[in-house]
Amino acid sequence: MVKDKGTEQLIKDTAKKIFFAEGKLHATTQDIADAAGVNRTLVHYYFRSRKILFEQVAEEALEELRQIMSSIFIGKLSFKEKLKKLISVFIDETSALPYRELFLITETNRHNQGLEDQVHDTHVKPFLADIKEEMDKGNITVMDPRQFMINLFSLMAYPLLASTLSKGFMRISDHEYIQMMKQRKQLIFEMIYPNK
Amino acid sequence: MVKDKGTEQLIKDTAKKIFFAEGKLHATTQDIADAAGVNRTLVHYYFRSRKILFEQVAEEALEELRQIMSSIFIGKLSFKEKLKKLISVFIDETSALPYRELFLITETNRHNQGLEDQVHDTHVKPFLADIKEEMDKGNITVMDPRQFMINLFSLMAYPLLASTLSKGFMRISDHEYIQMMKQRKQLIFEMIYPNK
DNA sequence: TTAATATTTAACATTTTTGTTAAATAAAGA
DNA sequence: TCTTTATTTAACAAAAATGTTAAATATTAA
């Protein structure tokens, strides 16, 4: 593997790949070092401890999720267009890194710490207000805007998170599943934002 | 804790509680023994190794998911009633054990083994056929029946699986979140099975 | 009761994972 | 160049987790 951005970054990126892309939540520092093709001591040299590496990775995962949200909500698109964009971006991102949320969830459970997050005021609150407004306009089904948001993220995230189970139960091949995930962009939009 | 069903069962039940209810996927045999209030050696006495305990727990998790499916599909209810029942049962079950699927997913990823499951022919295939039929009747929106099924399970499972993230981002209290999950039974049904 | 069996415990051993130290090598600046 | 600093490695140490053994206790059936 190329170490263009330096070894420290390489280690962190490799850890993310193992956790977020491969879903190997039990990976050890040795596993990470091996995958990165470096001596395990470097993990300690750059991060001092496994715990700190994990915390950095978790913090950046959270930051990445924030980025997705903010990338959508800058610019003056209509709600409808924002929604389309969010679905497309989120599904693309999550297809590449399906287990990122899962990592956050399990790390949070591991240390019995809920997450007090600032993303609420900057992104979630305005988004919920937009949803409310769109309901008042009669464009989407009226419900608790938070339920709307939960529905949206459920439909986007779950099939990628649980692809192993879905594919197993429904006997869908890897290739076809990818196709289906692409189709979901349109499908989710139509469910959430019905034409009439 | 009472050991009515014997210590072996107690250990297994405790492991399930830690994995499925608390989402502590990194729990050690010591953690499990402590939570069960027994000597760790008993884990080895009854299960020989940590690996075997995990495999048994995973196999039973899978069996429990099958049970949910079959409990719905015996009896001669209409599709509409089956759907209502499935949503209600699944959400109740998953509220109690939100991380059961997550355990299966991570254990599957850990050992690079997909799951070749017999549940397909007995439950999933007939369910998909029912969905198709209902679409032909014009009762539900026409789409790939597998997408319908994915939507259904996404809407049911994800909010419970990712409750930590949802509550954190949207600033919802534990108590209120439970209320919202109850409301989702009706809400999901209406999304999936629209009145007109 | 007693002998056989099942269950539980403590002590020990091994393996795995994590963390530390010091030395070797490479890179960069004076 | 030489000297300082950064990076990497190997060897070692400590801790954590898993697995094994044998003895103690409880249970059961003859």
TrEMBL record, chains A, B:
PROSITE patterns: HTH_TETR_2
Species assigned in the record: Pedobacter cryoconitis
Keyword tags: DNA-binding
Coiled-coil annotated spans: none
DNA-binding region: 28-47
Start and end residues of each HTH tetR-type domain: 5-65
SUPFAM superfamilies for this protein: Homeodomain-like
GO molecular function: DNA binding
InterPro entries with a match to the protein in the record: Homeodomain-like_sf, HTH-type_TetR-like_transc_reg, HTH_TetR
Keyword flag DNA-binding: yes
Keyword DNA-binding (UniProt): yes
Name under which the protein is recorded: AcrR family transcriptional regulator
